[in-house]
Amino acid sequence: MEIDIRDTEEYGVIVHMDEITGDEFDDYLSESVYALFDKGEENGQTIFYFGLASSIEKVEKIVGKFTKALNKPMEN
Fold first, then answer.
1. Angle of CA points 31, 14, 62, to nearest 5°
2. How many CB atoms lie within 10 A of CB 4?
3. What class is the 3-71 domain?
4. Domain residue ranges of the chain, discontinuous segments joined by +
5. What does the angle CA 57 – CA 63 – CA 69 come to, to the nearest 5 degrees?
6. pLDDT at 74
7. Rounded Cα gap, residues 46 and 20, in angstroms
């Protein structure tokens, strides 16, 4: 799983990841975190746009919590 986080002049903070991980991240953002974002797809990757008002540090923290949640065993 490769996740690329960038701070761009045009879109603010964006996150690139593969489509499967992107689906899981979308669910995580919608169900576990209150964060405004837009989403797109390009070249088999999902791109999350967090906007010009977002900070890369806060988005990195959200992605870190998401990756930790992925590694936890599922509860029944």
1. 40
2. 10
3. alpha beta
4. 3-71
5. 140
6. 45
7. 8
CA nearest neighbour of 65 among 30, 22, 33: 33
Structure tokens at 3: 């996740």
Amino acid at 60: E
| pTM of the model as a whole | 0.88
Percentage helix, strand, coil for the chain under 3-state DSSP, each rounded to 5: 40, 35, 30
> By the 8 A CB rule, do 8 and 14 touch?
yes
Give me the average pLDDT of each 10-residue run along the chain (76 residues): 93 95 94 92 95 95 93 55
Show the tokens assigned to 57. Answer: 């540090």
The C-alpha atoms of residue 40 and residue 61 are separated, in whole angstroms, by 21
Phi, psi of 45 (to 5 degrees): -120, 150
